[in-house]
Design goal:
This protein is mainly beta. The protein folds into two domains: 14-56, no CATH class; 62-156, Beta Barrel (Thrombin, subunit H). Helices cover 13% and strands 38% of the residues. The protein is built from two helices and nine strands. A six-stranded antiparallel β-barrel has the order 4-5-6-9-8-7. The longest helix is centred in the C-terminal third of the chain and has 14 residues, at 146-159.
């Protein structure tokens, strides 16, 4: 697994993907597994040569600590300033925020965060709340500009390990 690369972008930052179809399950018996690139999100299959468990999450989350500002996506009040929190982990498709503000599951939020004082803010135009408990809000990104997605990919490229540790 140490020399596996994404066929679309060439990155070595890949991880096992969920087995979605009957063919994925069948091919797993032959040790051909589905993988997902953590940077370009391409899904591909490749021969691994040994058995491995099915992962729970498609994208690896990176532990971070970035200030974030968020508000309801279609707020009745366009001037509404929003709420503050801290992004605790980040992937190309979502994040977890720590905030004292309660948010209902299914809510749609706009987010804006900066990864350093010298950077421009990254804007997530829409994220759906997937979980909310004990001050932790789990979000799935549903709408963001290509330029902001590219900037998140650059962050992950720096923060993600080259390869996830292999199990022997």
């Amino acid at each position: 697994m140490s020399n596996l690369r994404c066929p679309a972008c060439g990155a070595s930052k890949i991880r096992l993907a969920h087995r979605k179809s009957i063919s994925d399950v069948f091919l797993s018996g032959l040790t051909i597994f589905p993988f997902r690139c953590q940077l370009c999100a391409d899904r591909f299959r490749t021969f691994l040569g040994r058995r491995t468990p099915n992962p729970r999450r498609s994208f690896e989350r990176v532990e971070v600590s970035f200030p974030v500002w968020f508000r309801p996506r279609r707020s009745k009040y366009p001037d509404e300033s929003g709420q503050e929190g801290v992004i605790e982990n980040l992937s190309i498709r979502g994040c977890r925020i720590r905030s004292a503000t309660p948010v209902a599951i299914g809510s749609r939020l706009e987010l804006e965060f900066q990864h350093s004082n010298d950077s421009f803010p990254i804007t997530i135009e829409e994220a759906v709340v997937r979980s909310s408990a004990n001050g932790a809000i789990g979000l799935r990104f549903t709408q963001l500009r290509r330029s902001d997605e590219r900037r998140i990919r650059q962050l992950l490229d720096v923060w993600l390990p080259e390869l996830l540790p292999s199990r022997r």
